[in-house]
Amino acid sequence: MKTNPGGKIAPNEVIGRDLLIRELWDRLEQQSIIISAERRMGKTSVIRKMEYEPPAGKLAIFRDLEGIESPVEFVEAVWRDVEAYLSTAQKATESVKQFLNQFKGIEISGFKIPEVITTQWKVLLAKIIEDLVANQDKQVILLWDEMPYMLNKMPDKEAMEVLDVLRSLRQTYPKIRMVFTGSIGLHHIVNQLRQQGYSNEPTNDMYPVDIKPLALKDATNLSRLLIVGENIAIADQNIPEVIAKSVGCIPFYIHHLISSLKFANDTLDLASVEDKVIESIINPQNPWKMEHYRERIDIQTKNTYSFRY
Q1: DSSP H helices in 230-290
Q2: What share of the chain is helix, strand, coil (3-state, %, to 5)?
Q3: CA–CA separation, 65 and 69 (whole Å)
């Protein structure tokens, strides 16, 4: 197993999350979920593994929302995802097409919503979900990564509308489950919207889950697998556990640390691990992206949401 710091981790290389994933699937039998965690805890790897390895009777659809900045872009992305699964089943989005046929002279290009009907995005989203549910025997799980980042880029009114329409869809279609993830807690976004007069409870039907670092046993196992995969000679059999402890059992930093240690010419010893941790933290190139923690603490200490982050 090779190190892959910051890269996309293959589902079979996600270590130590099997119990968490089983718990998530069990919870999804009853309700939708909000997954929150600090950056680098591996939440995206978790839901990616869920996408690739769903239980029988589940259809899991993943979408990274971080680059989306408007409700229309969001609907276009959902439309693209849903159409892919309907095409596999050789079925068309009939409700969507019937809706669009009401507007004479409009041409549909790919999955781009014509500008003249962008105000109808809520109706179109409902039609897309209606088609998906109607053409699936499986329970549909919509895995939406970085939902708070998407909402944070929208004007307040649009963010409120997105949250409200998604809650309405969950209530209308019991076959649908939604999983929101985000390193910015969704509650921060909702609190900010409340300061602008928002009074709804858009996620009170969703169960909150906080992803923690790996258990020490699993973090040590990950370290050991990466050390073997990178063919690193070690002077002490306790080094995998020392590496895990030195970075708080967070998988992202385990990958980063071992990736940097593999270029040492000598057999890896305990002192080398300690030195590399200190060097990585103070490195001006900031390979571990440590500023996220400082910025997050500053914002929460100020306890203000007058600007978005």
Answers
A1: 239-246, 251-261, 270-282
A2: 50, 10, 40
A3: 9
Inter-axis angle of helices 239-246 and 251-261, to 10 degrees?
Answer: 130
pLDDT at 54: 95
Q: Is 182 helix (H, G, I), strand (E, B) or coil?
A: strand
Residue 67 DSSP one-character state: T
How many other CB atoms sit within 10 Å of the CB of residue 62? 17
What is the bridge-based pairing of β-strands 58-64 and 207-210?
A: unpaired
Instruction: Give the dihedral sign, CA 293/296/302/307.
Output: positive
Residue 296 pLDDT > 50? no
Alpha-carbon distance of 215 to 223, in angstroms, equals 12
Pairing of strands 139-145, 176-182: parallel
Starting at the earlier edge strand, list the strands of the sheet with 139-145.
58-64, 139-145, 176-182, 33-36, 207-210
How many angstroms separate the CA atoms of 148 and 163, rounded? 10
| pTM of the predicted protein model | 0.84
- Return the bridge partners of 144, or none: 63, 180
Summary count for the chain: helices (H), strands (E): 13, 5
Both tokens assigned to 202: 């858009």
pLDDT in tens, 212-240: 999 999 999 999 999 999 999 999 999 99
Is 283 in a helix, a strand, or coil? coil
pLDDT bin (cut points 50, 70, 90) of residue 19 is very high
Sequence length of the chain is 309
Phi/psi at 234 (nearest 5 deg)? -120, 145
Q: What's the CA gap between 300 and 309, in Å, rounded? A: 11
Answer yes or no: are the C-beta atoms of 250 and 40 closer than 8 Å.
yes
Task: Read off the pLDDT band of 91 (50, 70, 90).
Answer: low
